From TrEMBL:
The keyword Transferase applies. This is Glycosyltransferase. Transmembrane segments: none annotated. GO terms for molecular function: hexosyltransferase activity. It comes from Flavilitoribacter nigricans (strain ATCC 23147 / DSM 23189 / NBRC 102662 / NCIMB 1420 / SS-2) (Lewinella nigricans). It comes from the Bacteria. Residues 215-320 form the Glycosyl transferase family 28 C-terminal domain. Keywords: Transferase. The keyword Cell membrane does not apply.
Length: 350
C-alpha cells in the first residue's frame, strides 16, 4: 500500500516511479491519498484501487511555515492519530503486506513492514535551540517506521536536509522522478509551473502574468497546477495558460522548453535535475525547506534563484544566458537503484 501526503503535488509525483516499479515487479498495489495529490495518483494509475485518507487540513497563511504549523499542532496530532487508526483498518481489510508512506506520519503499522519516503531528516528551523527540540521530537517519531527511503545521494541535492542521516535503517535510493533524461529542440522560451499551497500559488501566478504581458516576444506556457480543472486559455498569440498537465504531457512540455520557472520544492528539483533543465527557482515565502534548497541550488550554480517579491523574469532569463547554469553536476542514479531496493523490500515480506 502506497500512501502520499496532500501538500502540493510533489509527494504524489515522486511516488509515481515507486508505484510503477512495484507494478513492474508484480506487486499488488493499493494507493491512498487525499485532495489534489490523491487525484494525481488516480489519473496516473486509473486501474488501481484507491482509498481516500483522512486529510490533514493544515492552513498555511503565515510568514513562516514551521511557526504556522506549531500553532496547529493539536490539529496535526489529531489528524495523524485518525490516519493511523484508519490505516490499521485498511491493512486488516486488504491484508496489506507492506506500507510505503510518503510523508504521512501516521501511515505505519507495528505488524507490517512500514517504509517512510522523505528527504527531510534534519528540519531547518531557526533559532537553533528550537531546531534541536523540534528535531529531537521529529526524529524520535520517525523511528516508528522500519525503514526510511531517502530520495537522494549522500550529500546530494537535498544537502543538510538528509545528510548526514541520523538513522541506521535509512537508505539513499537516488532521485525519484517520473521523467527520463534527454533533451529536445525547444518549442518555447519559458515554461511556468505553478504549485504548492494557497494563497502563495495564486500570488505567484498574478506576478508572472503581470510581467509576461510586457514580454510579448516570448513564447510561454503556464501550467496552473489545478488538478481539479481541465481548461486551456490563449493569452495573446504566444502565451498559453492550462490548468494542469499530467504525465507524458508535462514531461514533453518540460523537455521542449528552453527554461522552466517553478518553486524550489524538492520533487520539482528532482525532475529538473533528471532532465538537466535550466531553471528559475522561486521559493515559497515562509517555507524554510524551499528557501534552503533554493540557496543550495544557487551556491552549486544549478539554477537562478529569485525571491517572489523581487522576481524580474526578464532579468532572470538574462542571468541564465550570461552564466553557466544547470543541473549537469547533480547525480541522478535513482532509476538504477530503485529496482534493487524494491526487490529487497518485497522479498522481505514473502
Amino acid at each position: 500500500m502506497v500512501c502520499v501526503l496532500d501538500w502540493g503535488l510533489g509527494h504524489a509525483s515522486r511516488s509515481v516511479p515507486v508505484i510503477a516499479e512495484l507494478l513492474r515487479q508484480d506487486a499488488r498495489v493499493i494507493m491512498a491519498g487525499s485532495g489534489r495529490a490523491g487525484r494525481l495518483l488516480q489519473k496516473s494509475f486509473p486501474d488501481l484501487k484507491y482509498y481516500e485518507c483522512p486529510a490533514y487540513k493544515v492552513n498555511y497563511q503565515g510568514r513562516d511555515l514551521y511557526l504556522s504549523m506549531l500553532g496547529q499542532l493539536p490539529k496535526i496530532f489529531r489528524a495523524v492519530y485518525l490516519e493511523h487508526r484508519w490505516l490499521r483498518r485498511i491493512v486488516a481489510k486488504e491484508q496489506v503486506d507492506v506500507v510505503i508512506s510518503d510523508s504521512r506520519f501516521g501511515c505505519y503499522h507495528a505488524a507490517v513492514p512500514s517504509v517512510l519516503i522523505t528527504h527531510q531528516l534534519n528540519l531547518q528551523i531557526h533559532p537553533a535551540f528550537l531546531s534541536r527540540t523540534v528535531n529531537w521530537f521529529y526524529q524520535n517519531w520517525l523511528k516508528r517506521f522500519r525503514t526510511i527511503w531517502i530520495p537522494d545521494q549522500p550529500d546530494g541535492l537535498s544537502g543538510a536536509l538528509s545528510y548526514p542521516t541520523p538513522f541506521q535503517s535509512s537508505v539513499y535510493i537516488g532521485l525519484l522522478s517520473r521523467f527520463s533524461s534527454g533533451s529536445a529542440a525547444p518549442k518555447r522560451d519559458l515554461l511556468v509551473l505553478l504549485s504548492g499551497p494557497e494563497p502563495q500559488r495564486s500570488r505567484l501566478e498574478a506576478i508572472v502574468l503581470r510581467q509576461l504581458k510586457t514580454m510579448p516576444e516570448l513564447k510561454v506556457l503556464i501550467v496552473q497546477g489545478k488538478t481539479d480543472e481541465e481548461t486551456t486559455h490563449q493569452l495573446g498569440e504566444r502565451m498559453e495558460l492550462v490548468s494542469y498537465l499530467a504525465g507524458a504531457a508535462l514531461e514533453e512540455a518540460i523537455r521542449t522548453s528552453a527554461v522552466v520557472l517553478c518553486r524550489s520544492g524538492y520533487s520539482s528539483l528532482m525532475d529538473l535535475a533528471t532532465m538537466h533543465k535550466p531553471a528559475i527557482l522561486i521559493p515559497t515565502p515562509g517555507q524554510p525547506e524551499q528557501e534552503y534548497l533554493a540557496q543550495r541550488c544557487r551556491e552549486k550554480n544549478w539554477a537562478v534563484v529569485r525571491t517572489q517579491s523581487q522576481l524580474d523574469i526578464r532579468e532572470a532569463l538574462q542571468a541564465i544566458l550570461q552564466q553557466s547554469i544547470g543541473f549537469g553536476t547533480a547525480q541522478t542514479t535513482g532509476p538504477a537503484i530503485l529496482p534493487a531496493i524494491v526487490k529487497d523490500l518485497l522479498q522481505s515480506t514473502s
